[in-house]
Amino acid sequence: MKLSKRGEYALRALIDLGIASELGWPMLQISELASKEKLPVKFLEQIFTQLKTAGYVKSRRGKFGGYSLARPMKQIKFGGVIRMIDGPLAPIRCVSQTSYARCSCPDEIHCGLRMLMFDVRNAISTVLDRFTLADIVEITLRKYRRDKVAPPFLRRSIPLGSILTKEDEPPLHGRSRVEALKQFSGSRGSQSHNGRAKKAAK
Fold first, then answer.
1. Are 154 and 180 spatial neighbours (Cβ–Cβ below 8 Å)?
2. Residue 102 to residue 111: CA distance in whole angstroms
3. Which fold has domain 5-76+132-201?
């Protein structure tokens, strides 16, 4: 298995959508994603066409349109996305669970190489089929908080009310953009406030 650039960018785009959703922005414009990931818009549009066809994302037209996740993050597994874009996870087809094809080996049952590749396939699929988008988004946001770095999409110029419809509110886990902003800026805000207080006391 080799993750293609298309597969890599698809996973990164899904993570971006997940992060934005957790911060109160369930929909992002393709230009925002392309700018953040430093990718050509046309290439990203092709990837999103695949993701939309497979039911991972949905789109909305219009001035404040864009892309959003089409299913809960806990239902999006990385192994499934990679298979959809790049094909089987197995390094050779004769050990694939989803796209088996007999190889040229005359004795497949006793093939040592096939036995080894079974272990490789199992190791890869164990990880990629276990982790969901929800897991990776949570890990990523935790690292942002630990490093006291504001995540992308936290501050946007487009008013929230212009993007969300009644059914879009509230964001995942009931968290609002204001709550998310406080969570990531609170520590910095308190630090700067304390700094000003110390200067005033001198």
1. yes
2. 12
3. Arc Repressor Mutant, subunit A (1.10.10)
- Which uninterrupted H or E stretch holds 60? strand 57-60
Report residue 164 CA to chain centroid gap. Answer: 21
Cα–Cα distance measured from residue 40 to residue 17, given in angstroms and rounded to the nearest whole number: 17
Contact criterion met (CB below 8 Å) for 56 and 70: yes
Q: Quick one: DSSP state of residue 75?
A: G
Question: Beta partners for 60?
Answer: 66
Q: State residue 181's pLDDT score.
A: 53
| Position 83 pLDDT exceeds 60 | yes
Containing 195, the helix (H) or strand (E) segment is helix 177-201
59: phi then psi, degrees, rounded to nearest 5: -130, 160
Segment 183-191 shows an average pLDDT of: 48
pTM of the predicted protein model: 0.75
Residue ranges covered by each domain of the chain: 5-76+132-201, 89-128
pLDDT tens column, 111-161: 999 999 999 999 999 999 999 999 999 999 999 999 998 888 776 544 444
Confidence band for 68, pLDDT divided at 50, 70 and 90? very high
Assess contact for 39 and 172: CB atoms under 8 A. Answer: no
Q: Is the Cβ–Cβ distance between 166 and 139 less than 8 Å?
A: no
